[in-house]
User: Which sequence fits this backbone?
């Protein structure tokens, strides 16, 4: 098992190479998931942003299919964990087993020792088991019996879950949720996509036809390319402003963490790169605000009573927050620091 | 409904209080009694109507009926029994007409006149109904202030200078009462008010909003006090009383009103003052002006001469042509400027006779053509500065001699009425027995007042001015101008020739350049005699030696100077007597001075007109220029944004400066990129301003890309314009966020395309506004103003905070 580490220099790709590679991955996935290009793009963006993806939706909309299609498209080690209520932490991380022959304890790696870990129905496991993922997701390492094992790069957890209102689910702890870069919802397909799905799935599972179009090394180079995307000061300020706004909003009890800021910007870079840009736009942050921020915040009891979803709260913050400007460099701006149309209401 | 009934009563009370300022107009309090009855009747009608739950219109009708009944009972025509009849209303119309006459003939305070009372009661009743309806029916007590203000305005309109303050305070208190009562009622309708600690709030306990109310009140008072100061024509009242020096000799003749004043008393008052006070400074281009004149006493009874209240049309209607009054005289036009000091506050304006045009006189003035008096009911001459042109009548003795006696039924015959006094009649008969012409009779009487004849001037003479006193003056022959003037007027009347006493000032002391300084010692009275065809001809019988600044006319020369008198009487037709009131004026009289342009004084008139035109044109141009400032500012801004961004220094930084953690901050900073960024920003600012100009909403939370897309969507841009908008969005986006800005793009043309595209979809009105009054500029100014005021407020707060460090209260709380 080759274990390339994260710091290994792989060298960024050119814009054209990057575009071709990512387009191949996305087209591949879309063979299975029809009419969900935005969701697929976001999933790929999270992969390139070195993040973890949480797919939350009602049963039967293709969560697991998306996760598996993503895994199949990349030629790398893939493990799947079916989270069941009786799953134990050691099933996830691995366990030391006494070897009669060597008369010693031998570490049997768990399911997380892979490039891509598909955690299905993650919220059906008990919080005890879920918390086994905490260390590996953030630190990309596993510590069992005092020994720390590094995980491979890239490492991505793609988890699916049903909304917590569904029966037989345990809500994910905040710490766990915070480790997922983005939470996406599949949503129902539109009638045309559903029709295509019916004809496509009629005789065989298209997932079986899927071939890998990228390997771990390529993904590492893609990630390296994303790291070089430029984020202007104004964009960084905007990211901070967005996250700060969730901490200050009156309807939110727990705002987003600094880790969230980091992941937001990283994902924005990935999205920018996927669109063929080498710079981040505030538009990217605005599109990512709901997927990246909404699952981390906890609304106040009042907001919950008013049936305000976190998605609604976050998108309202986006619509409320003025864009920061870096106009100091503009010698033609006769107004002072706060430009006039910034302070204008809608 | 109880609340409404109570409010109705409060409205009635407030109306009565608001009527308090009328007390300044009436002599007695009858009007108040009548108004009280009327208002009570109206309020009673309203309460009754409300108790019976009448609809609104019926309530109003009830009140009107109440008013009609009250008027009928208070002002009965005598033909009705309690209920008004057609005859009653005819009587009312009569009363109103009568009131109209009364307002013209009476000065304030007016005596009890039925007409005036009727109008007053009618007005107060109408106000009472209005206030009641506004307060109790429509619940808008603040609006009820307007009809109450109507009552307020009456005394202010009548008196210009001095209105008593107390009644106004009473009226204001009535209004306050109304507002408070309504507010209390409003709050009570919600139930009980109680404080946080569970106890009921007293009605008069200050509300938490009291501080805000106080602030607004202070602001309102400040504005009300300061605003009139900024308006140049408003003067008077408390402030000017403070700012004017309170010294001087107090009110002059007839201060405060155009009513009947005792001119003789005022004259002797002026003359007997120990101090010499400068009253008037007059500058004229007439070489030898005759006296300034302001009043006449033309009624002679056993009480002596007295004046009738002058009456006549407003000065604004122009002055009569003197040629009608003195058809046979020649006229020359002159011009005079008069400056009246504060010490002379009278309601009649000193003028030279036959004024043709009076200018710059503040206040409402009317001219009595008969008395030739310019008077006012409420304005005074104090501190006035005015100018006037006047026609000086010229005639010589031979002309005057042609004057014929008046017809027996001539209306001017009333100026020959005199009390019966045999001694005077005998004296006159003796004096004129040898004279034929009217003029010669007057001359004979005039010349009898000579020192030779034993007359002696003495200003210290005590005299009440009545008929006996005048008669006794003719016997003891000691007196001053008022006795001389009155005695001569009486004697001329006794000769059957109209005469009257004129009041004014002698010429005064010449101070050069045609300017004369007139003091209280120059106050004077003389006789005016009506000679048919020549009008009122002045004769000053007072010895010239006794009066400072005295002057004599050719037709009535000084009787105490023997030589000219002798020659004058010797050769009445001689050429030297062909003189006039102004002897040094060229002899050829300018006849028919209609085209007065030949005279020096008129040179200014056309100038004035052209100045006026120029000023109006200038004002209009200024207003237009002011209105165009925003548009010009917008155009300048656009030009500056479009202009090339030359002269920018670029700070070249090596590309690709790798950060420590592998991040690369390789922002390209070359002169080109700096310029491209600046261009993009300028173009974007221009686009945003264009959007504001054309009323496309601007959202600060939107990214440039979104803004451009929305602009395309909302204004339905197509083709070039759409591409241009996208290009501008991309350029700005890259200038702001990318490593390399968009270079070489035609942003100026793009702006032009977007602008025309947006303009196409806008309405005509929006387009015109964007062109003439660009909202972007106005918005910027408003924002700047707002920012400035915020900053000022912050500074004030900081200052207050630092000052509160020294507040003794702080020490107190610390000590506790």
Assistant:
């Amino acid at each position: 098992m080759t274990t390339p580490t994260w710091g290994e220099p792989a060298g960024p790709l050119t814009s054209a190479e990057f575009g071709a590679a990512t387009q191949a991955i996305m087209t591949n996935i879309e063979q299975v998931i029809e009419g969900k290009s935005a969701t697929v793009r976001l999933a790929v963006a999270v992969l390139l942003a070195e993040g973890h993806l949480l797919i939350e939706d009602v049963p039967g909309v293709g969560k697991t299919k998306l996760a598996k299609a993503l895994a199949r498209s990349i030629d790398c080690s893939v493990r799947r964990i079916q989270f069941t209520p009786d799953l134990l932490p050691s099933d996830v991380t691995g366990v030391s087993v006494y070897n009669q022959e060597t008369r010693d304890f031998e570490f049997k790696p768990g399911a997380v020792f892979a490039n891509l870990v598909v955690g299905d129905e993650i919220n059906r496991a008990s919080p005890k088991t879920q918390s086994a993922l905490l260390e590996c997701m953030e630190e990309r390492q596993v510590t069992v019996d005092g020994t720390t094992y590094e995980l491979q790069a890239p490492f991505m957890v793609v988890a699916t879950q049903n909304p917590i209102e569904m029966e037989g689910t345990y809500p994910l702890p905040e710490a766990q949720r915070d480790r997922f870069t983005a939470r996406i919802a599949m949503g129902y397909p539109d009638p045309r996509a559903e029709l295509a799905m019916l004809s496509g799935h009629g005789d065989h599972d298209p997932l079986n036809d899927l071939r890998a179009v990228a390997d771990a090394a390529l993904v590492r180079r893609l990630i390296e390319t994303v790291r070089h995307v430029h984020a202007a000061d104004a964009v960084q300020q905007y990211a901070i402003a967005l996250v700060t706004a969730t901490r200050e909003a009156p309807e939110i009890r727990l705002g987003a963490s600094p880790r969230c800021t980091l992941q937001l910007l990283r994902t924005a870079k990935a999205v920018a790169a996927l669109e063929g840009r080498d710079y981040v736009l505030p538009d990217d942050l605005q599109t990512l605000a709901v997927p990246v921020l909404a699952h981390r915040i906890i609304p106040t009891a009042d907001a919950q009573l008013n049936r305000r979803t976190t998605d609604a709260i976050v998108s309202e913050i986006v619509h409320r927050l003025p864009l920061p400007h870096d106009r100091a460099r503009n010698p033609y701006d006769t107004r002072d620091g706060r430009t006039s149309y910034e302070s204008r209401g809608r | 409904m109880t609340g409404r009934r109570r409010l109705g009563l409060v409205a009635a009370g407030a109306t009565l209080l608001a009527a308090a300022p009328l007390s300044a107009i009436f002599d007695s309090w009858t009007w108040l009694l009548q108004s009280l009855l009327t208002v009570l009747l109206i309020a009673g009608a309203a309460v009754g109507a409300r108790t019976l739950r009448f609809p609104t219109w019926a309530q109003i009708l009830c009140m009107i009926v109440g008013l009609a009944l009250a008027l009928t009972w208070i002002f009965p025509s005598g033909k009705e029994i309690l209920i008004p009849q057609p005859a009653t209303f005819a009587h009312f119309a009569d009363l109103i007409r009568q009131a109209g006459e009364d307002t013209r003939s009476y000065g304030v305070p007016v005596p009890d006149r039925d007409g005036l009372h009727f109008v007053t009661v009618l007005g107060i009743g109408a106000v009472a109904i209005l206030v009641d309806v506004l307060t109790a029916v429509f619940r808008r007590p603040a609006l009820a202030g307007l009809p109450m203000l109507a009552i307020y305005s009456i005394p202010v309109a009548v008196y210009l200078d001095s209105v008593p303050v107390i009644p106004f305070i009473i009226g204001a208190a009535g209004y306050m009462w109304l507002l408070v009562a309504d507010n209390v009622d409003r709050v009570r309708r919600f139930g009980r008010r109680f404080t946080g600690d569970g106890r009921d709030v007293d009605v008069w306990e200050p509300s938490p909003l009291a501080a805000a109310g106080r602030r607004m009140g202070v602001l309102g008072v400040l504005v009300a006090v300061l605003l009139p100061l900024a308006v140049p024509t408003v003067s008077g009242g408390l402030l000017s009383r403070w700012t004017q020096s309170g010294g001087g000799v107090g009110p002059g003749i007839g201060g405060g009103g155009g009513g009947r004043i005792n001119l003789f008393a005022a004259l002797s008052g002026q003359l007997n003052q120990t101090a010499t006070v400068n009253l008037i400074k007059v500058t004229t281009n007439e070489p030898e002006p005759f006296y300034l004149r302001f009043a006449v006493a033309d009624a002679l009874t056993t009480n002596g001469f007295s004046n009738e209240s002058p009456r006549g049309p407003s000065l604004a209607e122009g002055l009569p042509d003197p040629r009608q009054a003195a058809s046979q005289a020649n006229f020359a036009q002159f011009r005079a400027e008069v400056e009246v000091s504060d010490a002379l506050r009278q309601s009649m304006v000193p003028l030279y006779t036959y004024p043709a045009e009076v200018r710059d006189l503040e206040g409402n003035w009317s001219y009595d053509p008969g008395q030739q008096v310019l008077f006012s009911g409420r304005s005074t001459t104090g501190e006035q500065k005015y100018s006037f042109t006047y026609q000086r009548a010229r005639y010589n003795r031979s002309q005057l001699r042609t004057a014929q006696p008046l017809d027996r039924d001539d209306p001017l015959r009333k100026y020959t009425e005199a009390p019966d006094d045999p001694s005077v009649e005998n004296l006159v008969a003796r004096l004129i027995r040898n004279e034929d012409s009217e003029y010669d009779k007057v001359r004979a009487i005039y010349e009898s007042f000579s020192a030779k004849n034993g007359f002696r001037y003495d200003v210290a003479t005590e005299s009440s001015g009545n008929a006996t006193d005048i008669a006794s003056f003719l016997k003891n022959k000691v007196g001053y101008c008022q006795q001389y003037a009155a005695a001569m007027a009486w004697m001329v009347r006794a000769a059957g020739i109209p005469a009257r006493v004129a009041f004014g000032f002698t010429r005064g002391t010449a101070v050069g350049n045609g300017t004369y300084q007139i003091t209280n010692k120059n106050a004077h009275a003389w006789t005016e005699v009506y000679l048919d065809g020549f009008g009122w001809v002045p004769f000053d019988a007072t010895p010239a030696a006794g009066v400072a600044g005295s002057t004599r006319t050719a037709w009535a020369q000084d009787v105490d100077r023997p030589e000219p008198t002798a020659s004058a009487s010797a050769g009445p037709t001689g050429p030297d007597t062909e003189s006039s009131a102004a002897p040094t004026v060229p002899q050829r009289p300018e006849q028919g001075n209609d085209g007065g342009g030949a005279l020096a004084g008129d040179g200014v008139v056309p100038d004035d007109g052209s100045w006026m035109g120029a000023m109006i044109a200038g004002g209009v141009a200024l207003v237009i220029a002011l209105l165009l400032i925003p548009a010009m500012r917008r155009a300048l801004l656009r030009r500056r944004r479009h202009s090339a961004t030359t002269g920018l220094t670029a700070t070249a930084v090596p590309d690709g400066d790798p950060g420590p953690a592998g991040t690369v901050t390789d922002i390209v900073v070359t002169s080109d990129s700096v310029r491209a960024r600046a261009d993009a920003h300028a173009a974007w600012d221009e686009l945003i301003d264009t959007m504001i100009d054309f009323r496309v909403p601007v959202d600060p939370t939107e990214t440039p890309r979104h803004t451009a897309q929305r602009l395309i969507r909302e204004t339905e841009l197509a083709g070039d314009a759409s591409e241009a908008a996208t290009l501008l969005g991309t350029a700005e986006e890259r200038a702001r966020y990318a490593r390399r800005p968009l270079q070489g793009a035609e942003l100026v043309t793009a702006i032009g395309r977007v602008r025309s595209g947006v303009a196409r979809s806008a309405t005509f009105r929006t387009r015109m506004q964007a062109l003439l009054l660009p909202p972007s500029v106005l918005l910027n100014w408003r924002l700047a103003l707002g920012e400035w005021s915020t900053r000022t407020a912050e500074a004030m707060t900081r200052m207050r905070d630092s000052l509160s460090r020294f507040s003794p209260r702080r020490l107190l709380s610390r000590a506790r």
In short: The domain at 229-330 of chain A is CATH 1.10.8.80 (Helicase, Ruva Protein; domain 3). The mean pLDDT of chain A is 83. The two ends of chain A are 58 Å apart (CA to CA). Chain A has two domains: 10-228, 229-330.
